[in-house]
Amino acid sequence: MQPSLYLNDLEIGQRWAGGPITLTEAEIIRFAEEFDPQPMHVDKEAAAAGRFGGLIASGWHVASRVMRDFVDTAPFGDTPMLGLKVDDLQWRTAVRPGDVLSITREVVDIAVSRSKPDRGVLTMRMTVTNQDGAVAMTFLNLIQMPVSAG
Q1: How far apart are alpha carbons 140 and 54 in whole angstroms?
Q2: What range(s) does the MaoC-like domain occupy (predicted)?
Q3: Do residues 57 and 117 lie in contact, with contact meaning Cβ atoms separated by under 8 Å?
Q4: Could you check whether the bond before residue 75 is cis, i.e. omega within 30 degrees of 0?
Q5: CATH value at residue 17
Q6: 71 near 1, Cβ under 8 Å?
Q7: Which stretches in the chain have pLDDT values below 50?
Q8: Number of domains present in the structure of the chain
Q9: pTM of the predicted model, to two decimals?
Q10: In contact, 34 and 119? CB cutoff 8 Å
């Protein structure tokens, strides 16, 4: 696990890498059957005849795997954090079975609370790319976290 980092330890422009994440066909179908059962995610024949020309992962599946990677890699160690908001979520390139995804997490804003100065809000830009460098997903994540260990 990474050492614990707090709001005071962070700077705008800091980056962390995540991944790789590889989505298999079976995993894509299993997730979609339960949470997003649209033909392009669950039916290979329908997907092949559709506008994507083949099976693609649900964007929600990609987002959930990015979250799992964040928890598993724990870039801030065991610092307690609370997700507050996701802004500007964009699915830009379809994710297909076998794609290998990488994540860049970048600090874009740091704001200490005026009313509760022991905590603040970290804004991070998440950029998910495939093995060819194409951007598959982007979003801004607002996270509440302590200013310091004290």
Answers
A1: 29
A2: 19-116
A3: no
A4: no
A5: 3.10.129.10
A6: no
A7: none
A8: 1
A9: 0.94
A10: no
